[in-house]
Design goal:
heterodimer; A: mainly alpha; elongated; B: mainly alpha; two-stranded antiparallel ribbon; two-stranded antiparallel sheet; 25 helices
Chain lengths: ~90, ~850
């Protein structure tokens, strides 16, 4: 249920650590892009597996829907969080 | 439906039972959960008492901090006034912010949780009532001592976020700052104790059938709130510890001239400080969601979205701390990340606001007292939220930073997001306690004065800020266009104060602690379980929950509950007890026998407060005596809580039998210990962050740490400690003596490893006063020493219990929890030994 948000958090802290401790800007940019791609891949994988597996019980379905919403929100958040890497030139 | 624990959900169909329950059962419940008499009120642990004490004390602090605000506004009503001298003004604004944030806002919502959650979840009480009592008394005594410092001119004066170098010994030589550091650190411990209680309470003591998707929104909010406390507060605990150590022992964590960095404090403070805003907001939003549904007479729109929004707020709030530091010269890309996260956090907050508006729009909202405060709150909070998005933009923040614009923004957010919802909650839930409502006529005056006063006070502050008026100035020059906005603000502040005063009058006239007598006080028509008729033991029987608003779906439920037709219609063991259920589906797992009233939590809180207070005024002998007495009180209180089992299994209604004692991950004690270890882990993690931060920002002061090879014996000893602790649990089946011997050996191995690690650092020539690197390295060792000392104490405690024959075999909770703690201690020590040698090793 919280997969999307956990992935957002992992991505955010990776980007922060890279920017804070990572040294030169171009290296940080490449590393941040790779991180973002990997995390977005994880979001996609999680999304596909959640769409495929539909639980039978009402609580399981409730969790699945909430999880998909969290995943969508987390995915958008990850893209937003990545924008400074491409938009800020220093 | 799938089961979580093996419990057959078909058993729920046995309820409601048909048989008439004997009257004596109710009388026995009353006897077991009886009202305290005389001095026993100090030793009460029941949530009905502790919740009210807690809320009353928090409100008292709100009033006192409000008076401080009025003093400030009087001083600023016109230019060049001298109502308050400059130094006193500094103390007043520091105390106003500190008391509102630490002594009112967080405790008030925690108090609401303690008071409301058991009723809402239909539990007899929260699972650790003595911990609640300790948390309350620690907060009350510590808070009052802290506040008293202002009457003797010793109140802190460095602003509520206490930035060094202003608060370092060089610039704040008195003990004013120490009052803040030790007082707040102590109060945070109380908040964490409350958070542990709430997390375990919400996840493990819900009524059978109350799956997570049927849980009241307020319970969700309190769950997210408590988890956020566990993650955020360790950072400020570490920060206050480091600053106090710097002041007391000259370890230069924040001294840039010796390899420290004042920005480290800002990171540690704001990693706590910004989530703190949401820590305050989320429970208030939970209250709003509950009240909006009742006021509109309609089910809440978007329950799932709101749950998700609250969880998302919790996550994102940990990604915004550095937006308070945009002007400190952080790299542009880093500011970009925090700016993006600061804007993103408005999305989940917006989801909640739209949900409330939609619920009000499709229902038939009543403009009663709670309704007015709810609607006023939405207006004020949205206004504050909009200026929040403005200051999330870096260029705008550069202009507005540290100006009155920020003061206006934060008051809109906090009053709209917390104070108005809390007043709505007062009006809404007071009838649950006193069985009658406050005056609707007076409430309209209260709301009018507070709403208009609030806007008159804070709207002009935006203008004053944009005109360049800085925060924290005790006066200003005439002729700068600041006279009018300041005068208007002062008038508004006194209107707001008048509204609060009128509320107090209403409270004094109408509020009484009234007995139940079958009256739930549901004057507004709420649909959740707190509106079942209740007494000190909560509800007569614990219902099976099948929906989110059980009272709306089944109006006869209250009557059947009152007749004892559901779970636990009597005391199954003759003691205080509640049903512990599984975390997701709330299936009954076991019956927890709860500890009753005791003087020991009270004594522990008094002595803990004495310890911190004595440290502040540098009465070290008294501090140590108090500290030892506090430890003895805690051990004495714990001694009674893990009793040998007398009854294996009991009938909790309709012939459903559950055990009265479980161990391992199913037990609520295990959960509490895991949460405590998360708190310790966060403190440790923030200490590691401090090391990495100083290494990165002050490389010129970094010297090669002791060689990695010298850590090998240390790591081997820690590995042995982990093995021994695990063995202690395994061998308990054979012998309790062997088990406690293994625990003692594990604690001793951790102690020895720490000694070796210390000698390795002291032999390297890096001292704690030499540089930021040395200071943090030795701080890590000091943290480990605390954990090791507690580990030794726990092992000795288990040994004493074994000697007295109180360690039951083959499984025992005390041994389990000691094992968890010792494994954690060793793992922390090993990580610290490794990381402190790796960070900066190349440089």
């Amino acid at each position: 249920m919280m997969g999307g948000l956990i992935l957002w958090a992992v991505h955010f802290f990776l980007l922060y650590l890279l920017a804070e401790f990572g040294g030169g800007a171009s290296g940080v940019r490449v590393a941040a892009s790779l991180c973002t791609l990997a995390i977005l891949g994880a979001v996609a994988w999680l999304g596909v597996s959640m769409v495929r597996n539909v639980p039978q019980d009402p609580f399981g379905r409730w969790r699945r829907r909430a999880g998909l919403l969290a995943l969508a929100f987390g995915g958008l958040g990850i893209v937003l969080q990545y924008l400074p890497v491409v938009l800020i030139d220093r | 439906m799938r089961s979580e624990t093996g419990f057959d959900p078909a058993l729920y169909e046995r309820f409601p039972t048909k048989d008439e329950r004997p009257k004596e059962e109710e009388e026995e419940l009353r006897r077991i959960w009886c009202k305290p008499k005389g001095w026993d009120y100090l030793f009460a642990v029941n949530n009905n008492y502790i919740g009210i004490y807690y809320l009353g004390t928090a409100f008292l602090f709100f009033l006192m901090a409000g008076v401080l605000a009025l003093l400030m506004r009087a001083q600023l009503a016109a230019p060049m006034l001298e109502i308050l001298p400059q130094g006193t003004y500094n103390q007043v604004f520091t105390m106003h912010g500190t008391v509102m944030m630490f002594l009112f806002a967080v405790p008030a919502v925690e108090a609401a949780g303690v008071l409301l959650l058991p009723q809402m979840l239909a539990a007899r009480d929260l699972p650790f009532p003595r911990l609640s009592a300790y948390a309350f008394w620690a907060y009350a005594v510590g808070g009052l001592c802290f506040f008293a410092s202002i009457f003797v001119g010793l109140a802190p004066d460095g602003g509520w976020f206490m930035y060094p170098p202003l608060t370092s010994k060089a610039y704040s030589p008195g003990i004013n700052t120490d009052f803040w550091l030790l007082g707040i650190g102590f109060i945070e411990i109380s908040a964490i104790a409350g958070a542990i209680e709430i997390i375990v309470g919400v996840l493990r003591t819900r009524a059978p059938g109350m799956r997570l998707d049927r849980m009241p929104i307020f319970a969700w909010a309190m769950l997210v709130f408590a988890v956020m406390i566990v993650i955020a507060f360790p950072s400020i605990i570490l920060g206050t510890l480091l600053l106090e150590i710097e002041r007391a022992f000259n370890w230069p964590f924040f001294d840039a001239t010796r390899g420290g960095d004042p920005l480290l404090w800002q990171h540690l403070f704001w990693f706590f400080g910004h989530p703190e805003v949401y820590i305050i907001f989320l429970p208030a939003a939970g209250m709003m969601s509950m009240i909006v549904a009742t006021v509109a007479g309609e089910r809440l729109v978007g329950y799932r979205l709101i749950v998700l929004a609250m969880i998302a707020t919790g996550f994102i709030s940990f990604g915004v701390w550095a937006h308070h530091m945009f002007t400190t010269g952080m790299p542009p890309m880093t500011t970009g990340f925090f700016s993006a996260a600061s804007m993103a956090v408005s999305v989940p907050a917006g989801i909640q606001v739209f949900s409330w508006i939609a619920t009000l729009a499709i229902g038939k909202p009543k403009f009663n007292a709670p309704g007015l405060f709810v609607m006023g709150s939405i207006v004020v909070f949205v206004t504050g939220g909009l200026t929040g998005v403005m200051v999330a933009m870096v260029p705008f923040d550069w202009q507005a930073h540290d100006s009155y614009f920020i003061v206006a923004h934060l008051h809109y957010v906090l009053i709209g997001g917390m104070v108005f919802p809390l007043f709505a909650a007062f009006y809404y839930w007071i009838p649950m306690v006193s069985r009658r409502a406050l005056s609707e006529r007076l409430a309209k005056w209260v709301f009018g004065l507070m709403f208009v006063g609030m806007n008159v006070a804070f709207l002009p502050m935006h203008l004053a800020g944009l005109q360049g008026m800085p925060r924290r100035v005790y006066t200003y020059l005439p002729g700068q266009g600041l006279e009018l906005p300041n005068l208007i603000s002062t008038i508004g502040a006194f209107m707001l104060g008048l509204g609060v005063l009128l509320f107090l009058v209403d409270l004094a006239r109408n509020f009484r602690l009234a007995p139940g007598d079958g009256n739930a006080g549901n004057v507004y028509g709420g649909g959740t379980l707190e509106w079942l008729p209740s007494e000190l033991y909560s509800t007569r029987s614990i219902p099976v929950v099948t929906s989110r608003e059980p009272l709306w779906n089944d109006p006869a439920l209250a009557d059947r509950v009152e007749k004892g037709r559901y779970f636990l219609p009597r005391s199954a063991t003759g003691r205080r007890e509640t049903i512990v259920t599984s975390p997701l589906l709330a299936e009954p797992q076991y019956l927890q026998i709860m500890p009753g009233p005791s003087p020991w939590p009270f004594a522990a809180a008094i002595f803990t407060a004495g310890f911190f207070l004595a440290l502040t005024v540098q009465a070290y002998l008294f501090a140590w005596v108090s500290g030892v007495l506090a430890v003895i009180s805690v051990l004495r209180w714990l001694w009674e809580t893990d009793r040998p089992v007398e009854i294996e299994g009991v009938d909790i209604g309709a012939d459903i039998r559950v055990p009265t004692y479980v161990t391992g991950p199913s037990s609520h004690g295990w959960w509490a210990m895991i949460i405590l270890l998360v708190v310790m882990g966060m403190i440790f993690l923030m200490a590691l962050f401090s090391l990495a931060f100083l290494s990165s920002n002050q490389p010129g002061f970094w010297r090669p740490p002791p060689a990695l090879g010298r850590a090998m014996p240390v790591l081997m000893l820690y590995a042995a400690a982990i093995g021994l602790a695990l063995a202690a649990r395994a061998v308990l089946q054979r012998s309790s003596l062997w088990s406690v011997t293994a625990l003692l050996a594990s604690a001793a191995a951790s102690g020895a490893a720490l000694g070796l690690d210390y000698s390795s650092w002291s032999g390297s020539g890096i001292g704690p006063t030499a540089s930021g690197q040395g200071a943090v390295a030795y701080a890590l060792l000091a943290l480990q020493a605390c954990a090791a000392a507690i580990g030794i104490l726990i092992a000795l405690y288990c040994a004493a219990r074994a000697v007295r024959g109180l360690v039951a075999q083959p499984r025992n909770n005390s041994i389990d929890l000691a094992m968890l703690f010792l494994v954690y201690t060793a793992a922390q020590g090993a990580t610290g030994a490794l990381v402190s040698r790796l960070v900066g090793a190349g440089g």
